[in-house]
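Lecture notes, unit on binding sites. The following record was shown on slide 14. It pairs a sequence with uridine-5'-diphosphate.
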Amino acid sequence: MSGEQRASVSLIIPLYNEVDMMPGLVRAIEAFRSERPEVDEIVFVDDGSTDGTARKTQRLVSDLPGYVLIQFSRNFGHQLAVTAGMHFASGDAAIILDADLQDPLPVAGEMIDTWQQGYDVVYGVRRQRDGVSWLQRATARVFYRVFRRMSEVDAPLDTGDFRLVSRAVLDAYRELDEQQPYVRGLISWLGFNQTGVEYDREPRAGGSSKYAWRDRMRLALDGIASFSGRPLRLAVRIGLGVSVLSMVGLLWVLVARLATDSTVPGWASILFVGFFFGGLQIFFLGVVGSYLARVYEEVKGRPRYIVREVWSPPPAEESSQD
Ligand code: UDP
Ligand code: MG
């Protein structure tokens, strides 16, 4: 596009208790930067780590140019850490990646090449995922497909948050102020020229996963709830369907009873049916409640994250001003 710069790239890396990862991560970034001089800013977002990640990071990068460390006042969650990074990044483009090097830096290099050909969003598509249980892999596959069916956004399958976004997308993202942002969904929703590069996801290079199953479930439900009202419509349809079926069932039982003139046995199955529909009702009450909770979060309109400090290494003394 006219006059649009495609020269400098920021990296956005959320950190939550990644102290063991930091030396390897900084080493990998420095090696990558020596090949890709476009990368002139690294935005670390410390999401309220309690293991000294911030101090360790400051020590590691104290005489390296281009690093910024944003410290949250507490743990706000991965999606908000990424969001803050996107707000702070100043490059012509930014690449979002995990601290654990599961998203390989050489692929980030490919993303930069693709962006320089004129794309605005280059997302990583996972070809295979090592070091992840088959159950996690299977549920992720199912989720991405359900999400795509349910939401009206054209979200690519099998992609995490690992992606490059151009300045235009960063600026547009700033306009979104959802309380519980589902970053990958929002970026798809924004549109622009999007494309993917395939890659094999590495196992975690150190430390342990910061996402418990509960967090994954929550992210999945956040994703669906923020992009689709379909669960609500589904509740209406299932409710109607069940009513009609039970009317038909009742008529059938009455007719059968008249025909054979015998009492209908089976109080146990009636009890079961009662529990089943009781459960279904509570489930859909929960669905409605979760949308209500989201509305409540939005209405309160609190700031989404609180920054305690923005730190960057002091400029080296002997180097000249630039
Ligand atoms: N993370 C974060 N806040 C959290 C949880 C995770 O900033 O509350 C970061 C974490 O440090 C890592 C990225 O999000 O850089 C992805 O987390 P993780 O690798 O644990 O997730 P997984 O790859 O297992 O899904
Ligand atoms: Mg990971």
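Take-home: The pocket of magnesium ion (ligand 2) is lined by residues 98, 100, 102, 204, 209 (CB under 6 Å).
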